[in-house]
Design goal:
Blueprint (H helix, E strand, L loop, with lengths): L1 H5 L8 H17 L7 H26 L7 H18 L4 H23 L4 H21 L1 H4 L5 E2 L4 E2 L2 E2 L3 H23 L2 H11 L1 H6 L4 H27 L1 E2 L6 H14 L4 H17 L7 H15 L4 H14 L1
């Protein structure tokens, strides 16, 4: 029964395919700077990388475990402010602050996941939305600690006395972290944990019948995805040098979910592609000026109507059909 349920979601790729995909990702990261002609283009690529790191983790929760979250920007914000406050206000080393933020988010998400993941459907969506709203309110109202609605300045990231400075340096940092995030995600998906998550997504009842601890694996996916968001938030804070509560609000959470769905749920590389396209596309649509948001919305509607599985899975399906033909 678990096998039947699991096959309803995207299966993990064979090892050789996974290695080829990772090699392709590494090649793209390594060669992309050759096509980026100025710091503005590098900045967009870096922001796309941050979004992709969060979406790779969020895809584990939504795409594989089948659990919705409308509050993941809150974990991104906690990671950003944890690094900002610990480094800038208390003089912590950036690496220690990043780890402290990730651990704090991991513990918090574990405590929250226990009760809220018992919910299903729109009840779960509302609960996760509530988490994000609470985090956003706290960041806006704790003026003495977070700077309030205006945000706070964050010191630069230093490691072994060396300061990470400039778009070119940060591009490689974000590229390496993204590659590690994708590698970890693919290995998790191809492990017994990943197979359990696909079984949970297919049918929780069937999974429980054969002894899968569904609650445990849902909590695990929630925690891992939250930690991914925290790490991305910490790095983002040091890169931009300024963080505001807007990065933890409801609209940011919706944007992250849209990226995962647009690229293709239960597809790690689909999540990356969705994050990259929906970060770059608004910049490309500025030529439409006041109509850019309308055009972006129309593109998303077209994709969801005609490619309900998401962009990458649909393309892969068309290629497979042509090969069979």
């Amino acid at each position: 029964m678990v096998q039947i349920a699991a096959t309803r979601t995207t299966a993990s790729p064979p090892i050789n395919t996974r290695l080829l995909s990772l090699a392709a990702l590494a090649a793209v990261i390594a060669t992309l700077p050759l096509a980026l002609t100025n710091n503005f283009h590098l900045d967009i690529a870096i922001l796309a990388g941050f979004n992709a790191i969060v979406c790779v983790g969020l895809n584990l929760l939504i795409g594989y475990a089948g659990q919705i979250s409308l509050g993941h920007a809150g974990f991104f914000g906690i990671g950003a402010y944890a690094s900002g406050i610990l480094v800038t206000t208390y003089g912590w080393p950036p690496i220690a602050a990043l780890l402290a933020g990730a651990v704090s988010v991991g513990v918090l998400s574990f405590l929250l996941a226990k009760p809220i993941l018992r919910l299903k459907g729109h009840y779960l969506a509302m609960a996760t939305l509530g988490i994000g709203i609470i985090v956003s309110i706290v960041l806006r109202t704790e003026t003495g600690l977070t700077g309030g609605p205006d945000g706070m300045m964050v010191d630069s990231f230093k490691i072994f006395g060396l300061e990470l400075y400039g778009e070119k340096t940060w591009y490689w940092v974000v590229g390496v972290v993204l590659f590690i995030a994708v590698w970890l995600s693919l290995n998790l998906i191809d492990s017994p944990v990943g197979r359990a998550l696909r079984a949970v997504h297919g049918s929780e009842v069937a999974a429980e019948v054969v002894g899968v601890d569904t609650a445990r694996y849902k909590v695990m996916a929630f925690v891992v995805s939250a930690v991914f968001a925290s790490v991305a938030g910490s790095l983002f804070a040091h890169y931009t040098g300024l963080i505001t509560p807007a990065k933890a609000d409801f609209f940011k959470s919706i944007e992250l979910v849209t990226m995962v769905v647009f690229g293709g749920m239960a597809s790690t590389f689909g999540a990356v592609i969705g994050a990259v396209l929906l970060t770059v596309l608004p910049q490309a649509l500025t030529v439409f000026q006041d109509y850019s948001q309308i055009v972006l919305g129309a593109i998303l509607m077209f994709t969801m109507v005609f490619m309900p599985k998401g962009l990458l899975p649909t393309i892969e399906g068309l290629i497979a059909q042509r090969r069979r033909a």
